[in-house]
Amino acid sequence: MSVLARDFFTDPELLQDPLPYYVALREHGPVWREPNQGVVVLSGIREILDTFADHDRYSAIVAALGPLVKVPQPEPGESWAEVIDRRRAEIPMGDSLVSIDPPMHTRHRALAGKLFTPNRLKENEEFMATLADRLIDEIAARGEVEFCAAYARPFTLLVIADLLGVPREDHVKFRGWLGGERNVGDPDGVHSGDQVFANLEPYFTRYVEERRAAPGDDVLSRLANGRFPDGELPSVADIVRLAIIIFAAGQETTARLLATAMRILAEQPALADALRSDPSGIPNFVEECLRLEGPIKSTFRLALRDSRIGDVEFPGGTVVMGLIGAANRDLRVFEDPDRFDAKRANARRNIAFGHGEHFCPGASLARAEARLTLERLLPRLDEIELVDRGPLAYAKTFIIRGLDSLPVRFRPRR
């Protein structure tokens, strides 16, 4: 069977290793109507950027979960845009920042911008450095750890918690909710992320309500009392949804990025030595990690009317997938695209964080977390290697690309 005839969304082998699918798409061309879910697959950077920038023709309502989202059918004479507006509350994650379109998206994204200010990110980076040193202190003497559980997940969780101003006494509880075995987009879990959002909602609702009643000089107070650009005060639910998506999505994806970076360093000890000798190469190394093994495989749009991309025509209501993992190996952009090159001159042309209106607001934070982690970790740990050189276990989801665990051993550096 041709690899393109297999179901990218459920095939266990492709969920673990999508590279054969990416290669087949590259040989076929940048637009493909896959036969299992009827999804139009875009595997080229230009095609994704052009399509996702066309907000009049394509809606982000299915951005997070793609074909798992069942959008209500329009009534006779009703457009897809109209039914989305009328029945948004019935659509999974329909009110989330990732799922709304301009001009609503522009208003809500402005609220997120109040968190990611240069001063706030500088404060957060100071916290990061202290936290990284503390976690490295905990693992350095052990000689062998499961890196995701020992460093990547707690580090990214506490960094995003600090950014949002989550009270310290709630950190442990949040960590438990975000540490489950299922992933968003897991064929077995379907909407497994729903439970994370359900758990976080009452906590953030309480935080926002308390700080609206009695504002303080803390991050949550500034978030709770922030206003839209036109001066209107958002509803409590608006603020809560924003905080939850930043918290849950920011923690998950950056933890996967850190695990990818650690795996590559364990597999390429000469590269680890080179970055120890010249830390100025770390930012570009991180960009190449994002390009070749970025934490988001795919994101989606819904065609609002009959459309055509390249030679592929499809009706309104069709799900279009921007296959980020494949596009970041676009031969028209990256030479020898399946090879990891820490010095690749154009590595930052990757679209791991999206583009345009929906460019990830936490991109600078994620890059800083990865850079700072490697700057603190490489001088402390030497001879990093994988404990088991057999197949690694990746998240069983068509949305997330990343390791569920990474056992490594190392020698503390004196």
Molecular structure report:
This protein has 414 residues and is of the alpha+beta class. The chain has a single domain (3-412), classed as Cytochrome P450 (Cytochrome p450, Orthogonal Bundle), CATH 1.10.630.10. It contains 15 helices and ten strands. It has helices at residues 12-16, 19-28, 45-52, 80-86, 104-113, 118-140, 147-164, 171-177, 193-213, 219-224, 236-267, 269-277, 282-293, 324-327, 363-377, and strands at 31-33, 40-42, 58-59, 144-146, 298-303, 307-309, 312-314, 319-323, 381-386, 407-412. The strands form three sheets. Strands 1-2-8-5-3 form a five-stranded mixed beta sheet. A three-stranded antiparallel beta sheet has the order 4-10-9. The protein has a two-stranded antiparallel ribbon with strand order 6-7. Helix 6 (118-140) packs parallel to helix 15 and helix 11 (236-267) packs parallel to helix 15. The chain is globular, with a radius of gyration of 21 Å.
